[in-house]
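Quick one:
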Amino acid sequence: MGDYVWFHDVSWHASYAIYFFVIGILAGLSFLSYGSWITPALRPLREKAAYLSLVLLAIGGLLLIADLSQPLRFLNTLNPMYLSFTSPLAWGALNIVAFGVASVLYILELRKGQDSARGKLLALITALLALGLPIYTGYDLSVHQSRPVWNTPVMPVLFVALAIASGSAVGSLLAGANAEAQKTLREYMLWSTAGVGVILVSILGTTSYGGSAQELTFVILTSGTMGLIFIGGGILLGTAAPVAILFLAHVRQQTTAMMLMLSALLILLGSAALRYALLMGPQHLQTLY
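Output:
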């Protein structure tokens, strides 16, 4: 049934799923830090989000370096002579470095304790560079023409939606008892997670009614252990459940701290599960043919 492929190993390891998860959160936190310059309710999160996003960048960088067979080769990403500008990986490396530099400059400005125009500009630049992180990771997958699910133009969009959802979830945990911030973050979590659900439905629909390789990938993603992770953890617990909880709170215009915490934790669980399943599931098919 499936088409023969010339590589039969899983070349993208599970550590990349952790990297995608970390990168998504730091991008979402960068959005929140910039949003605090526009939305006063988010002001208490400005410094927390900026500092945590930089810490997560360091963790993500270490994950990438550790995955290399020769870790010192990461230095090649800083050497223009080694860069291939037709590769999304090259642009991703440049994006990561530029984001790190902008984040450091932004934090140094924040440490002055002033709401300066320079600080707002650096927040905007950092947020725009952060937007490129989930886009490039999604694009890294979408350019693989022989892999079902990956090879779809909505993958970068899905990763951006996941970044907003997971970043808002961490922001909600950081906001604590701040009612104004929680009200804003509740809406961010609700609509970004709902967007994730819509994209997942479109991916599942096109995969289940595609060719033989797509149909087999659909079976892998929806059955067995991978199905438990993808459907159970990613879609039901991590997407449908928090959307239901948050939508109920949205309609009633009242939310308890327990509802917000539960929703945030479920979104983070779902975000991790979806990234793992979407990364590993489509690769399993190529080990069979």
